[in-house]
Every structure is written in structure tokens, then in C-alpha cells.
Fold this sequence. Notes:
Elements: E1 21-26, E2 29-34, E3 38-39, H1 42-48, E4 61-62, E5 73-74, E6 110-113, E7 127-135, H2 149-164, E8 168-176, E9 179-187, H3 195-207, E10 212-215, E11 221-223, E12 233-237, E13 249-256, E14 259-260, E15 267-272, E16 275-280, E17 291-297, E18 303-307, E19 320-323, E20 326-330, E21 335-342, E22 348-350, E23 356-357, E24 359-365, E25 373-381, E26 388-396, E27 402-404, E28 408-410, E29 415-419, H4 422-425, E30 429-437, E31 443-452, H5 453-461, H6 470-483, H7 485-489, H8 492-511, H9 518-530, H10 537-552, H11 560-573, E32 580-583, E33 587-594, E34 598-602, E35 606-610, E36 618-625, E37 644-645, E38 649-654, E39 661-666, E40 673-681, H12 684-687, E41 690-692, E42 696-702, E43 707-712, E44 717-723, H13 730-757, H14 765-796, H15 802-835, H16 844-870, E45 877-878, E46 884-885, H17 894-920, H18 927-962, H19 967-978, H20 980-990, H21 993-999
Parallel strand pairs: 10-18, 20-26
Antiparallel strand pairs: 1-2, 2-4, 3-5, 6-7, 7-9, 7-10, 8-9, 11-12, 12-16, 13-14, 13-17, 15-16, 17-18, 19-21, 21-24, 22-23, 22-25, 25-26, 27-28, 29-30, 30-31, 32-33, 33-36, 34-35, 35-39, 36-38, 37-44, 38-44, 39-43, 40-41, 40-44, 42-43, 45-46
Helix pairs in contact: 2-3, 5-8, 6-9, 8-11, 13-14, 13-19, 13-20, 14-15, 14-16, 14-20, 15-16, 15-17, 15-18, 17-18, 18-19, 18-20
Amino acid sequence: MKNVVSPQIESLTVKDLNFTTWCSPVSTGRQCQCEDQFAWSCENCGLYGACSNVTSPTCECINELPPGGEICQPISTFNPCITSTTTTLPSVTTTTMPMPITTTTPTMPFTPLPPPPTTTTSTTTPMTQTFEITLDVEFKEEYNQVTNDFHITVSNTIRAEGLKQGIEAKLIKFRSGSTIAQYQVTANSSVTPDFQALNLKIAGKLAESYPVVFEASGALTFLPNDGFYEQTVTVTCGPPPVNLNFGTVSAAEWRRNTVLIAEDGEHRISVKDGISTLTVSRFISSDDGVYECRLMRTNDKAFFRQKSEKSFSLKTKPTITVSPIRQYVQCLGESVALNCSVSGGYEVEFRGFSGAGNSITYNYIAPQGCEQEEKTFTCQSITQPVFTKAITLQLSSQGAYCINDTFGQGDIGYKSAVPCYPKLVGPNKVGEITAVCKENKKFDDVEYNCILLPVQELLDQSQFLTATTLPVFLEQLKNVTVNYTDEVITSPPNIKAIVRILINVANKSLSLDISISRDSMENVLITAGVLTINGTKQTWNFLNNNDTRSILNNTDPESVSSSFLDSLETITSRLVNATFDITTDFIQLNRTTFTDTFNAEFNSSVTIEIPESNGDNKTITMIVFNSLDNVLPARDEANSSLNSINGRVVLVQSSAKIKNISFTFDILNDTLRNPECVFWNFSLFDGLGGWDGKGCELVLNINETGTVTCNCNHLTSFSILMSPNSPKKLYLDIITYIGVGISMGSLVICLIIEGLIWRKIRKNETSYLRHVAIVNIAVSLLIANIWFIIGAAISDAEVKNPPACTAATFFIHFFYLALFFWMLASAMLLLYRTTNVFGGGLSKASMLAIGFFLGYGAPLIIATVTIAATAPDNGYIRENTICWLNWDKSKALLAFVIPALSIVVINLIILVVVLYKIIRRRVGTTAAQAEEKHVLVVIAKSLAVLTPFFGITWGLGAGILADPTNEGIHIAFAFFNSLQGFFILVFGTLLDGKVRTVQF
């Protein structure tokens, strides 16, 4: 019942109050009952149905409350209802079969349903038909409850519009498919009913409140409907049919897979004369899907909808493969086979030549005596549009310097290219394999620039992304990366291509102001996670080595790993303004809000704390990478190669500036020491990037719990670096430099003494050869110490000079080896003179030649081979402390340790043999024999002291490699290493009694 509110007037007196109508809920809805002497009109009884069978013109109860507040009226006010007399005829059974519709004319929003078979007819048999109308409203089962407001509004609208036409219209039910209202209309057969007009009236009235859908029976038109990706595609919608009386089309909406298409650089929407056109400038795979067009009208919420018949897509571009791609050809009338093939059942031809097929060959004969020039042959597809691939031949009158079965022939420096043959790189790859003709008459520097075809297609499409296509594209990228994980992680070109795709995504999201949704970000993190797994470490090492090599070669640096992190930072900055968590196998993301303080722990490995802020509501985004240490090199601002990333890498961004943030990292390797709190600085090394400690400081290092706490005053990507070496100690530097100074002074004194006595020691051949060895040992160590000081200065400089450091390392290596090999020459002289008891044999000149070849020739060969084998891969030098041979990366230090310690062992064996011979030999009777024995004894004594001394020194050097944190070994090595010159003076020169006699 309705509440009747009367105005409050002080003089008003209620004398009488009559109740006429009351309504009560029942199982089927509600019933409205009249009081005594009141009734419903015959019209309402027929329209809403009497509660029981009634034969009188009126009824006291109906099954619904009429709209507009109508109530029961006094019985005396009703006129008799007109009734019709019916005559029953013989029954006729009819069945209506739906006919197939082939017209492309859009249908009405209402759909007539097949009538049920009728059993009897009469001259006044009512005509009944059922229709459906679609409302663009999310369906709910509660709409079928008669007490539901939505049910009441739609039902009353249908009844009311029917009454206006003299037709009974009744809502039957709602069903899903948006929301479809099914209703029944009944009209007297004596009057031809205009169901079309009624249905339009119902649709128009409902459209004032709800979006009514006028469905088109025909499908959207696509031009072209059978083209290739990256072509322009036009989609046409409408116009609505004239008999629909749709009115003026004011706007249009387009959807793909139910997602609204926004106008952008690649998608344009136009409306004219009731027709809307969607133009896709470059149709890519992310544009595939089911298309839907909605033409809107101005006066209500109704729209005309037209869909594509099925999911629309274009064809992948033909993949054309040519062989060779670039080749050197001599102008000697030789024949070169030019091959071209195409995938996907297409055909190709060489432009300007006859003959076509899916795989063709053209034999080109280079003319005799042709000029040096490049000749290009174009292979093209027989399609619209035409796709091409070129072959370039370098014609030359000069002979071929390199000849190879795969790369053909070429002159020195010529770069040949062949396709990515499946037999060499596996199937489903595109690109080329290149090699350069070298002076050794071989094709070297082979580069496999072969990329998976699905990755290459995504790379091509990533240049044309928009807000509409980006979400679908990122899902495709994730699927390809996951499905081809094994091929991706072991291939530098595939990783570089995916990083380039992520860079394009980041750039597009910035330039087009695209917000990245949670689902899209999850796809990005899954893709990035695959690129960080342990199986990628070797591939990233290769890429990072090439990055570093570009610095050494003074070429423009471009770091793939740094670009990878930069793209992720950019994409993260474009996240939608919402809070959520994303957890993948290798990366975790948390985006939340805070006001004053913040504290969060990730996977029990990283704790982030912001102790205070300005109190405003702020958004913070944190990403923790489980294995980004596989990707980023551990180089710091000193370009050290011995550090290791020993904690998770954490990326932090905030909507407000934060000046104080604390990180607590669980260390990954507890054998490492010397933690440094660092962030990735993209500008280091001319944009190559590296770890930088500016703005971060170490707060707490707890070895017992294996944690390191850092404080930083800015936000970016953070981690900790730790080194296997002991911390640099000042007293070690003092010991080293004082010792080197004493050593160099001693060597200068040694050479001065040798110069003073040089004429007097020439009389005895053995003594002469011994002093030649001593002089060269002293000269080698003196020059090595000079280069050691130069190398230390280069390493300590703020601006690093890798070429200079490489030169210093080469000379230090060479002259230290020369020291040992001259010791070996001295030992070989001792052995030769001790065992050659009968005299004769090699002349002095021959022995000098052997000595100089052994003393300088062998070290030169070892040093040259070492730098040639390790420098191209940046594995020659270690720049973290001083310029010296690399250990951790290439083990180049073994090129010094193995020869040096081998010579120590050989010298000790020689000493044992010589001492045994000297002890057993009888004392000579002549002065010459006595002097010879004296010289041999001096050589033996010198070697007996210097060999163990040098052996101990470099044995301690090997001990540092085994236990780099042992400070005792560091001190002992610094002491012995720095006093080598002093020991050579004492035991190489002053130990000889005749030298002392001459001098003193």
C-alpha cells in the first residue's frame, strides 16, 4: 500500500477514511484485492489477470498493481464490458517452421519466436506471438522475480505500450545473453495487428532507461579480408535499415574481443551518413579477434550492433630465404648458384628473370675482367603486396684469399653472410650467419645472428604498439618466451631481441601515455623472469663481455643487460594507480600505499624499511629479482671484475621523493667479504652502466646471521657487492712500496758492481756466463718493478685506462717470466758444466745464444700467446687492485704461475744432481780446475738460495688465490715479493768471494 501524506493544517479535521485497495505478496508475485463495494475495471482484470475465474464484467482481485497509482473504484461507476460471441469450428493443427535468413539487413531489437502449434481456431481466435528484446545490461537471475524493480519497470512498460495499441503484451521471463527479455503479444484477429510498430514503441520506451540493442543480421565488412600483417585494414559498420526508424547516428564505438578500441596513431574511427569505419593502419597479430561495432543515437540509450562473423586475422608475411646473402666473386667467369625459397605455399621469382616456384635457383656467371663492384639480385614473392629479399655479390678482379665451404671465398677483411641454415642452427630461425676473412686464410669472427621466427615477428610488431594492442601483445610475448625457453636462454640474439621488444614497450608506454595493468605487468614479469634464470648466465656473460669490449674498442657502448633493467624500471613507472601483488617463479612485485612509515619483507631474503616520511599518502612499488645476478655484471665504478652480486636485486619506486630508505639483504654466499651497498647507475662508463655506491652506506654487517643492512637517500635498483679478497690494507701498501724501493735500489747496486768487475770475470768462461745470467736477472726484475709501479699508478687513477693497464700487465708478465727463465738458464749452465767433465762441447757464443733465447724468447712466446688468447674476451687483466693477469674469469694468471713454479721444481732437481756430482768429484790439481769448481759452487749456492726464495714467494701468491681472506699470507707475500732485488744482490753477487775481494 502507498502511504498517503496529508498537509499538516491546524484547522483540518478528518471525518471519514475509506480503505479501497490492499496488496499482499504471494508465491507468484503479489495480489491486489479490493474492499467491499469496490472492484477493478474489466480492462485491468484482462490485462493483469484475475486471481480466480470470473465471469462478471469486473473482478475484486488482480495479479499486479497497475502503474501510476491506480486503485480499486466503486462498482457503481463501471459500465458493462463488451464481450464477443465465439463459434467453435473444427480444430486445425498448424506448425510454423522458421525459415533460413540470408538477408544482410539488420534485424529489430525484438526477435519473434516460433509460435506453438494451435489446436482450435474460430472466427475471433486471438493472434499470439512471442518476441525477444536485448538489453545491454548484465544478467541477474533475480530479474525474474516479479517483485524486482527491474522486472516491474520492464513488465509495466511492455503492458502499457501494448494497451496503447489495443494489444495485450505480457513479459514472460528474462534470460542471459546480456539481458534478453522475452514477452508475448496477443491481438484480436478481427483487426490486423501492427506488431512491428508495437515492438518499436516498446524498444523506444525501454531505451529511455536502458541500453537497447538493435542487432544486425549481417556481419561486418573487412577490406582486405585476406591480406598480410602490417597492411592497412578497413572495417565498415552499418547503416541501420530504413524500416528500423533508428534515427541519426551520433557516434560509434568499436570493440575487439569485448575490449573498447580507443583512437590512436594506428586506429582511426569515422562516422558519416549512418556508417562507421574503423581503419587500422598496420594490422598486427595483436589486432586479431572478434570485432563489434555500436552505432549510437542521440535521443536515448539504444544502439545498433554489428559483429564480425568470426575471429578476424590476417596471414603471416611470407618468409623468404636467400643463399648466399653476401658473397665474394672473382671475375674469372665462375658460376655462382643463387638460391631463393619461400614458406607457406607461396611462390617467388628473381626480379627481371623468368621462372617461379617455392624454391628456385639462378646460376650467375661473373664476366671475365669485370670491374670491382657490388651486384644485387632481388628475390620477390608473387603476392600482393610484394615481399623481397636481396642477394649481394662483391665482384672483384683480385684472387680469393679465403675459401670456405659455407662462406664461399673472400679477400682479407671481407665479411660474408649466409642464411641461418637449419643444419647449423636448428629450424624456425631467421637472420644470418656472418664471418670475416682473416690473414690466416680462414673465415673467423663467426657471428650467429639467428632469431626465432616468432620472436622476430613480435620484434617487428613492437614498433607499432598502441594502448589497444599492448595488452594482447604482452600476453603473446609471454607465451612465446615461455614456450621457447630452451631456445631463448641459450641464444644471445634471441635475448637481445626480447630486450629490444621490452625497450619498445617501455618507449611506447611513455610516449603514448599508456597505463600498464596488473595482468600486463604480470606478463612482463614472467617474460623477464625467463631471461634471468640460471641457464642464461653463460649467455649474459657473452653479452656483457661484448659490452665491455665496445668500451675498449672506443665504439659506442650499448649494454643489453643495463637496457633490460632500464626497460623494466620504465614499464614499472607506468603501472596503474592501484595496489596489488604479483608473484612469479623468479620475480615478486608489491605495489601498496603508506603514509608515515613502511616496512615489508620479501621471501625472507630482503627487508625494506622507510622509517619516516612527510605523512602524505604515497604509493610505493617494489620488485625483488631472485636471480638478476645472472644478468647484471658486478662491475663497480672502479670497473672491478672480482666483485660478486651477493644479494637480491631490489627495484624500488615511489610516487613521492624518499630521502631515507633501509635495506636488509640476506647474503647469498657467506664465503665472500667486504660488502658494498650499491645501486645501478645507468650513466657509468659512458652509458654502459655499473654499480655505484653514491648515496648509500653500509650500516650493519652481521656475519652470524648472514645479513647486510644498507641506508640510501634515493630510489632505484639496489643490491650489495662483495669480494673474495681481503680488504685493502694500508700497511700492505707500505710494506710493498718500501720493499719495492729497497729491491730496485739493490738491483741498481748489483748492476753497478757487475759493471765494475766485468773485465775481470771474463777470463773464466763459466764465471762469465754466470754473471751474464745474473745481470739479465737483475735487469728483468728491475724493469718488472718499474712496470709494477706504473701499473699501480694506472689502477689507482680515478679515470681508468684499460689499454695502458693491458700494456703494463704484458710487460710485468714478460719480465717476471724472463727472471725465472734466466734462473733456469743459470741452472742449465751449472748442470752442463758439472756433467761435461771432458771439456769441449758448446762454444761460448752458442751458450749465449741458447741463454738469450731461453731467457727472453720463451717468455715472449708465453706472454704473447696469453694476451692473444684472453684479451679479445676481456679476460686478460684484472683491474680491481693493480694491473695484473686475470684469475677469476680466464685463469690467465696460470700463464705465469705454471712456468714459474715449474722452473723452481726443475732448478731444485738440478741442484740435487749438481751437488751430488760436486761432492763426488775429486779436488782438481790445476788452478783452472780449482777456479772452475769455485764458480760452480758459487752458482750452486746462489741457486740454492734464490730458487727456494722465489719458489716460496710465488707459492705464497698461489696461497692467496686459495685463501684470499688470510691476511698472514698477504703479509708474507708482500714481504718476500718486495725484497727479491735485495736477495739477488746478496746471494747473486755479494755471495761470490772473488767479487768481494775485487771490491773491497
